[in-house]
Amino acid sequence: MVLTSVKIIDTKYFRIIMKITKIEIYKLNVPLKEPFIISLGVIKTANSIVLKIHTDHKIYGTGEGNPYMFIVGETQEADFEYAKMLAKLLLGKNPLEIENRLAEIERILKFNPTVKSAFDMALYDILGKYTGLPLYKLWGGTNNREIITDMTVSIDAPEKMQKDALKFKNAGFPAIKVKLGDNKKNDTARIAAIREAIGYDIPLRIDANQGWDTNTAIGTLKALDKYDIEHCEEPIPRWNISDLPYVREHSPIAIMADESLFDHHDAFRLAKMQACDYFNIKLSKSGGLNTALKIVSIAEAAGIKSQVGCMSETRFGLTALMHLVIARKNIIHFDLDSALMLADDPVRGGIEYKENGRVELNNDLPGIGADFNPEYLEKMEKVIIS
Ligand SMILES: [Mg+2]
C-alpha cells in the first residue's frame, strides 16, 4: 500500500512540549503630553504593567496592561503584585495551551482584567511566534481595510474643548470623540461650542463615562440630537444596567456600552436586554484577546457592531488590539489614540500613525509584531520570576 509510506499524522503537532522558564515583570511609566481628563478622573502618566514570558524554545512573548483604577479597580502597584503571583502559577507550564493557562488564572484571580490581559497578550505573542504567523493571520484575517482612529477631547471648559476639537480637525482626524458626563446645561454648551468651531462635516461621538443619571441622560441626549452625534458611550452608571434599555429607547442618539461591557458574559447580557447599539471592546476590560474574540462573536450573533478602544496603552498594546481589528470586520469604529497622547514612544515595530488618522500595521512579523525598546524598559522597576 502506498499509504504506509505516507506520514499521515505528524505527532509533533499533537504533543508540543514548550515550557515557561521565567517571566519578567516591569512597571512601565510613560509621561503624557498633557493631562487626560474624563468625568471619572485625571491621568498624567501612563502607568502600565509589561511582561516578558520566556520559554525553553528561545521564544518569548510580550504583554502590556494599562490599568485605569476608576474603571477596572486596578493600579500598576496592585497589578505588579498580582503579576508576580500569576507568574509563579505559570512557571514550568506550556504557554501554547492558552485556554488552560487562562482558565488557571481565572480560577485564582477574580476580576482584575487588566493584569490578565497582559498575560493573555504575551501568550498569544508566543503562539504567533511559534507558528510563524502574525496574530491576525492566525485568526484568518486579511490586512486590507482602512483603519482610521478618532481623536479624543478631554472634558474641560467649552472654550478649551472647542480649541482642541478644531486642532484635531485641522490635523486631519476623520472623527472627534468628546468626553462629557457633567450635566445637561454644561454638556450641551460644550457640544454647541465644538460644533460652532468645527462645523458639521466631521462626525462627533460623545462619551459620558457613566456621568449622568437616567433622566439627565435622556434629557441631554435629546438636547444634543440637533448637533448630529454619531453615538454616545456609557450614558449612565454601569451598576444601573437595567435602565440602559430604557435610555436607549428614549435616546435619539445610538448607545454604546463601554464600562458596562467587560467580558463575554456582559456582552451576552447587554445583547439579551437589547441595551445598546454598539459594544466598545478594550483589552484592559475584557482580560485580553481571548475574551475579546468571544465578545466579537456575540456582537456578530446579536447584530451589534463594535468599536475598539484603549486606556493609556503604548503602541504595543494598541498593536495587539490592531490584530483583532484586522481579523474581525464586525469592528467598525476605532479609538486607537492613546499612544498619540504619550510624550515618549518606547515601542519598536507595530502600528504606525499616518496622516488623517490612518493607522497601519505594515509588518508581517509573527505574533504581535512589536516589542518594547530594551533601553527604555531597563530604566523601569522590574522583577524576574524564575
Ligand atoms: Mg468610553
What does this structure look like?
The chain is α/β, with parallel strands linked by helices and 386 residues long. It has two domains: 131 residues, Enolase-like, domain 1 (2-Layer Sandwich); 236 residues, Enolase-like C-terminal domain (TIM Barrel). Helix content is 37%, strand content 23%. The strands form four sheets. Strands 4-5-6-7-8-9-10-11 form an eight-stranded parallel beta sheet. A hairpin with a 5-residue loop joins strand 13 and strand 14. Helix 3 runs antiparallel to helix 4, helix 6 packs parallel to helix 7 and helix 7 runs parallel beside helix 8. The radius of gyration is 21 Å and the shape is globular. The N and C termini lie far apart (51 Å). The relative contact order is 0.16. The N terminus is likely disordered. The protein binds magnesium ion. Magnesium ion binds next to loops.
How many separate domains? 2
| Helical percentage | 25-40%
Number of helices: 14
- Per CATH, the class of the largest domain reads Alpha Beta
Please state the overall shape, judged from the principal axes of the Cα atoms: globular
**Main beta-sheet annotation:** 8 strands, parallel
Query: Which kinds of small molecule does this entry bind, naming each only once?
Result: magnesium ion
> Which residues form runs of ≥5 with pLDDT under 50?
1-7
What is the CATH-assigned architecture of the largest domain? Alpha-Beta Barrel
CATH superfamily of the largest domain: Enolase-like C-terminal domain
Radius of gyration: 21 Å
